[in-house]
Write a structure and sequence with these properties.
4 copies of one chain form a homotetramer. Chain A contains 10 helices and 15 strands. Chain A is α/β, with parallel strands linked by helices. The longest helix of chain A is centred in the last third of the chain and has 22 residues. At the A-B interface, helix 1, helix 2, helix 5 and helix 6 of A face helix 2, helix 5 and helix 6 of B.
Chain lengths: 337, 337, 337, 337
């Protein structure tokens, strides 16, 4: 960490600061220039509070050289994290395809979709039981009943299930879920993250609508700091000025997070764009960029289904697209050898 | 609401859609053009799910004419909401000044700051007991103990207190708090909003980092839909590409929300900019734009306080600035007459 | 186009508006609801000025159903535009690889890089002679001399050249350039676009830093409206809150623009990220998403070159990466069959 | 400037870098830490190319302590720039009100508006003769004829005129204009800026849609570096995700630019919001935040004018609002004493 002091700082405050820094087991390299004094801090600075230091009257600016996340950091954890769910793996060179409806609606719907996506090569079943909705008047999901229907579909197909949690009090209901999803609006619900770190199921953290890579990794750090190492990251688009697509898929997130951290990265082209016609090209792009998998919305009966977003594929389309994704992944692996 | 159908839509789907819309007590005005059919929907469309309709195969686009929020809407609630806290009012032409430290640290700190800000003309005492922190390694606030210190300061000065809640389970601790603050990261924590609607204390909702006006008002709608009409909105800056300031204060939010809704609007220049030197000009701007008040971070002892952000003012500066704010407010009121 | 009138509009103004619209050869379908009157306009509305209509006192909102661009519109030009440069094609299923240094520096540099990128499979040579620089004190490019060096390198290798124009007065110097590039800061330099439409060389328009798809296509429309149909679009990242990468590559631009328009689309991963380690994954993603080509910065001598950006690849890396890009493109074409 | 080297850098490259830096008359303070070497550069670093240094293989990051602009910098030019136009001043404690129509349409319109805004207290007449329009099919302004009408209105009222230039070749037409405006889309048209620096008329630079403060000041630096010190800055809103207003007025720009630089700052609430009802509150906010003036669109005959944007005020409204602005400015000045 580098601390740049203001011009002509108060000497007693400088000495105060240095004493405090040394008490935190940080070594100080001081460099006195014509206009500024620069303190280079050496040691474990990941636990120093950067806001706290910038706040000081004598400090002009603070710059981290080390990242503020440690458990999430590739530098201190060089191997890829591979998540094990039942007999399958997420990460480590495999292709994960999470597919299923936006909302769980009925037993018939879930069984139909689950069977179809499994046959098409999906590896995990997704479906929303608790739905975060902008309007209090919109359908809020089937809740606990939806979770039961997901489990029924798992029983029928063998596919592990991933579904979103919205608050701490729901945790007991998620004991038999395979992967717990943290939605974009909860990415910085620190209390929830801490609790999810105290249990052992894999946690998939969707990127906040306007979260930086660093903030996203700090959320993963919350889960890991509480003891759970099974974290998956899901890029689902960020909010920008462009309104043609619902969000802007940040494809660079894939290689950047692979470099900064060690987690599996999933791409969600359905939410990123809000348009089913864009799911295929963006899923292909995600895999070509090195993502470990994709999350895709699939519905069974577009003619009658009232709750399928415009971003959902029907079963037929999903089958066609997933074949291409699997084929691309296989090609890319063969090229590596 | 206007529904634009795609070219040459499937006739049975169109008829299906019309039947469904009529079952929702909406009247349909159909306009058949050369290239598109347009359905004008008349009646209470605020409870129609726009995503659901856009999702249909035959629909090209949907446009609301009516806003999706109803209780929060100025059109259905033409008078300003005035919040009563003890013997004071927020809104209705008064000037509210919420002041106090970022974090509650100690009894001495709270009593000192509370007395000073009261003397300087502040009307409400702020202070964080539960702190949302990006890093799991940063100080997370004094918690329940912090709430007790706030109450002590209230006892000492008579100032009502406002402080942030982070999750539903903390609600019982907030029973004796005067105004409950929902932080920017929780603006779309719908479960929390719903619970806050089930109690009667005023709720101040800070704008999410990348929330649109409509999303923000929908969050207020959540609270009102559950029964609590005492909502205050607080603009605290949005996230943009400009990184010189921590956030970008959206000053237009003040007149826009005054027009669209009926809530008191507070401006938080401290968090919006992250720089204490910008607090005065932005607080002045907020009041000139018609805000009902400001929220300002104030600390007592910048030389020794480790937890004061660079956005905090010291007691002396706050006194000087608050005098100007009160004077400006008085001038603007006199001009109106 | 749909015009939504305000509640209880002034009758003479409504009649005034209708007369004016009819004088523009637009048919009007009127739909009178309880709260609003809606006018559905049918005919060629692409030349109506939407701002002008929204400005009227009686108008609440205007919504286009038709796009404001016509020549650029896929609906009126269903076949892909294929650009012919010497004996090669851009678009139409081919893979275009534009490679070369950020700035033209010397004859030796240009010849070395040109030969190397040609051998590695690049199809077009890039290089900046006129450089848009944020600072007046930075190197502004070799100018006319730089153009001569590019032509020398073309003579040596046979590779067509693409380079950026910065103002109208430079046009005569570009007579012997193969593709004229309009930089991101000039995307809405309408005078320049109009002039480029009056000559016949292909024009590659880079997306403005915060340009919407529609604005970008309107810039292409300027060129086409003046008579030049040879337009190429280049996505080079947009400005967002994320500062780890220089810009955020908007990968969805590829399929979206393929759908809305008929131009070849090139991806520039070098400028989009500002980091050479991200060039490979993003170039791969671009091709997988359906781009017609990539534009990549390549330098010859990273140890001594002072003017190569951190986004440049060296010759060796480019060779390795380009092999992968060509192989991926071949694989994707084989899958289509 | 601080240069942070990568871990274990190549020694000969480090020595190469140091030699080069010293040749630029920069002194180097080296600080060797456990993990990184930090070079603190002292001297005039404003002319060092930061991109060029970051590009080096051995460099991890570069951080400026000094700003890259020099002439524009408050640190080297502590007094406020005051622009003299005829017998009036812009900056230096005065209130400048630029008012007039979006587009110059006719002699009658210009004379009517000019007389009315003068009577209402405006100090400068604005009006567009060359109009940057997104669509090639929209009205592009009256051009040279429009400039003549502006001059006629000046003759009639004595008000100085400000109007936008779009390309270098128009410069001769602007010889008799009082203030030359550079529009938002030309903020980084460096060739144009350089030419405007070679003449002596005041240049008002509008902020680019997604320009940072630093980029904006660098554009001012271009003008000053070519010899013209008469620069005015105009904040007109930036592009964000919020689409209710056309742009987001960044009110913090006023105090920030007052601190970083010495130019007069004008606020344009008409373009910033695109809504006439927001002009008053945002103009008031701008003045309260310390702006030197406002730029407001005013039209004469909203019922018949086809080219007035929804952001224009009519003559009556402008009169009422301007009275409030002048009164607020007077109040704020009296408070200072």
């Amino acid at each position: 960490m580098i601390v740049i002091l203001k011009q002509n700082p108060n000497a007693s405050q400088v000495s105060h600061l240095k004493t405090w820094l040394e008490s935190k087991n940080v070594k100080i390299h001081e460099s006195v220039g014509d206009s500024h004094i620069i303190l280079g801090l050496v040691g474990d600075t990941s636990k120093l509070d950067i806001d706290l230091i910038s706040a000081l009257d004598i400090v002009e600016d603070v710059k981290r050289v080390q990242e503020p996340y440690k458990n999430a950091n590739r530098k201190f954890h060089s191997e890829d994290t591979v998540i094990k769910v039942k007999d399958m793996q997420i990460g480590g060179g495999t292709l994960t395809v999470m597919a299923g409806p936006c909302s769980v609606e009925s037993e018939e719907q879930m069984i139909t979709v689950a069977k179809a996506v499994k046959e098409a090569g999906a590896t995990i079943l997704r479906g929303g039981a608790f739905k975060p909705r902008t309007s209090p008047y919109s359908f809020q999901g089937l809740g606990a009943e939806g979770l039961e229907l997901l489990k029924l579909a798992r029983l029928e197909t063998g596919l592990p299930i991933v579904t979103e949690i919205m608050e701490i009090s729901q945790l007991p209901l998620f004991e038999d879920v395979d992967i717990i999803q943290v939605g974009t609006r909860n990415m910085q619900n620190f209390n929830l993250l801490r609790e999810l770190g105290r249990q052992s199921k894999p946690v998939m953290i969707k990127r906040g609508m306007s979260a930086t890579y660093e903030e996203w990794l700090m959320s993963a750090e919350y889960v890991m700091a509480s003891g759970n190492e099974n974290v998956i990251l899901c890029e689902r688009g960020i909010r920008t000025f462009e309104s043609y697509t619902r969000n802007t898929l940040d494809i660079a997130a894939v290689p950047v997070l692979k470099k900064l951290s060690h987690f599996p990265i999933i791409i969600d082209p359905s939410h990123a764009t809000g348009k089913s016609s864009l799911v295929e090209p963006l899923a292909m792009a995600g895999i070509a960029a090195g993502a470990d998998g994709v999350m895709i919305e699939v519905h069974n009966d577009p003619e009658h289904a009232w709750c399928d977003g415009p971003q959902s594929l029907n079963l037929e389309n999903f089958k066609t697209i997933n074949k291409k994704l699997i084929s691309l992944h296989k090609f890319l692996k063969s090229e590596e050898e």
